[in-house]
Write a structure and sequence with these properties.
six-stranded parallel β-sheet, 20% strand, 9 helices, alpha/beta, Rossmann fold, 202 residues, single chain
């Protein structure tokens, strides 16, 4: 699968490494290939392909938006033609705001995109090491219930996580609430960034 990751920070870099190791063609798209984060990514992943956003999007089947939340509106508006019809994963967060995700922004600019909400409710450290005491971490996500969803399950599983589909984007606030809970437990309750949630059933 051809995957474009927009953003060269910890989230994008960690996901990209795992997917490249799984055999996918991964290209990182960034506005500044010489930025500090881009240079750090090159050091961490010497074989990483880093290009412009436009070039990264040109052949991509799946696009992961892992840029700062505030940059997404301009990003999708400027690249709407290249993003049309693609599977788009919104990982961005604006914790503390009334709306945490960028779903409406993305859909307004690219109405034909198939938008999923994933990789937003856990820290990158858990994507890098998704096992805790021998148990696989669950990852809750939402998005369209169509022929694109099995690919999301596969991509999540290739990170080493157990995918749990919560529903369509009508329940996106529930998925966002899990991210807010994770952040609250860490920054207000003093838990380490390595905590995660597990769905258990009898």
């Amino acid at each position: 699968m051809k995957i474009a990751i927009l953003g060269v920070g910890n989230i994008g870099g960690t996901l990209g490494k795992k997917w490249a190791d799984a055999g996918h063609q991964v290209v990182f798209g960034t506005r500044d290939a010489n930025s500090r984060k881009a240079q750090a990514l090159r050091q961490a992943l010497p074989n990483a392909k880093i290009d412009t956003v436009a070039n990264a999007l040109s052949d991509a089947e799946v696009v992961v938006i892992a840029t700062p939340h505030a940059t997404v509106a301009d990003l999708v508006k400027q690249n709407a033609v290249s993003l049309a019809g693609k599977t788009v994963i919104d990982t961005t967060n604006n914790f503390g705001a009334l709306v945490v995700n960028n779903l409406a922004t993305i859909q307004a600019a690219i109405p034909t995109a198939q938008v999923f909400r994933a990789f937003n409710s856990l820290g990158w450290e858990l994507f890098a090491n998704p096992q805790i005491d021998g148990q696989t971490i669950d990852h809750f996500y939402c998005g369209p219930d169509n022929d694109r969803r099995p690919a999301l399950d596969k991509l999540i599983a290739e990170i080493g996580l157990h995918p749990v589909w919560v529903g369509t984007n009508d329940v996106i606030n529930i998925v966002d609430a899990l991210g807010s809970l994770w952040v609250t437990l860490i920054f207000q309750c003093g838990y380490p960034r390595t905590i995660a949630l597990k769905l258990v059933q009898r």
